[in-house]
Amino acid sequence: MKQKPINLAIIVIMVLLLSIFLYYKFTQPENESVPAPGSSAARQIEAGKQAGESMWLLFSSANCQYCVELKKIYDRLEPEYQGKVRFITIDVDDSDNSSLAQEYGIAYVPTTFIIDGEGAISYQEVGLMAEDDLRAELDKVVQQ
Q1: What domains appear along the chain, each with residue ranges and CATH number?
Q2: Beta-strand (E) ranges in the chain?
Q3: Which of 37, 116, 119, 135 has the most beta carbons within 10 angstroms of its beta carbon?
Q4: The CA-based dihedral angle spanning residues 74, 77, 81, 86, taken in that order and rounded to the nearest 10 degrees
């Protein structure tokens, strides 16, 4: 007689597990897309290279005051260069960007790379920069 409560408990547990399985099976979207490998920033850079676009890569961190200041300049300049230069911000604190930061040899932030339409780095600088200096460097890759 003591085996009946144990058998009942096993049946209850099995029903619960089956219910959980069915719940997750039928509540998840069937055509869920799998993200492409690499970070979003890496895909943007690759798309810019494929399209022959000039790019401003800004490696930064939300915890860095100089990064925050440079991002303000970045945000002011972006509308001015829309359609001429692809602006890409890379958050070095995001683990998805670690291989990208390693590829570009990022040791300090903020770090700026301006890349011409041929994919060559035309300008590289570490630290906060003057808006006029950045505009001059961006103008160089736009005129190519």
Answers
A1: 40-142 (3.40.30.10)
A2: 54-60, 85-91, 111-115, 121-126
A3: 116
A4: 10
| Paired residues of 138 in beta bridges | none
Alpha-carbon distance 72 to 60, whole Å? Answer: 12
* Alpha-carbon gap, residue 57 to 144, rounded angstroms: 18
The confidence score (pLDDT) of residue 90 equals: 97
The residue among 90, 88, 89, 77 whose CA lies nearest residue 139 is 77
96: helix, strand or coil: helix
Q: What is the residue-averaged pLDDT of the chain?
A: 87
Longest C-alpha distance within the chain, in Å? 89
Task: Categorize the per-residue pLDDT at 17 as very low, low, confident or very high, splitting at 50, 70 and 90.
Answer: confident
How many Cβ atoms are within 10 Å of 50's Cβ, its own excluded?
A: 9
Of 47 and 29, which is predicted with more confidence?
A: 47
Q: How far apart are CA 85 and CA 82, in angstroms?
A: 6
Which has more confidence, 135 or 6?
A: 135
